[in-house]
Amino acid sequence: MSSKSSRTKKPRNQNLTVPNAMSLFRIVLVPFLAYYLIHRELVQAIVTLVLSGLSDMLDGFVARRFNQVTELGKMLDPLADKLTQATIAVCAAVLFPTVRVLLALLVLKEFLMLCGAVYLLKQGKRPCAAKWFGKVSTTLFYLSTGGIILMETLHVPENISRPVSILALGVTVAFMIYSFLRYFGLFWKILHSEDSADRIDLSAEIRAKKSRG
Fold it and tell me: At a CB cut-off of 8 Å and minimum separation 6, what does 34 contact?
């Protein structure tokens, strides 16, 4: 076998995929999003958020369509979601007091879910990937927060903005609670599962290799 053939068949890390790069891209966008929101540069913030949202929609499609689903990707995707949501919530809460109730609920929900994921990993168990109800919860969060910020920025009369804000917050909070309960059910199921498919060696997955041949 020639040295050239040997080089072409070197193993590579299977985590080097386009979907994982998209998730990392969303994480890189977080500080830019925070800067634009704090400085009330709403056009730039919206563009950044649209880029983040598009990559969020595309990474899952690309992963499934081109068989690039990885365990690292299943963790990076929700991490990028949580960082983006937290950034929007914190910045919005500083600038717009109306959304502080969302911030409090979001912080509690994400903190508990993060603790659950870390606990599962310490137990050698595989945290569940993002589910449809988590994605819907994220979408509602973006829509309600963005709508409230837009109304306050445009100085929409309170007799219109207040009931709309209350309705948007109510629907979002309700779905966040529903999403949390569904994830807690999955956490409990995985924690007590004896199925080998629910086990994971995190360090091995991060070093995951596959042949180039």
Answer: 87, 90, 91
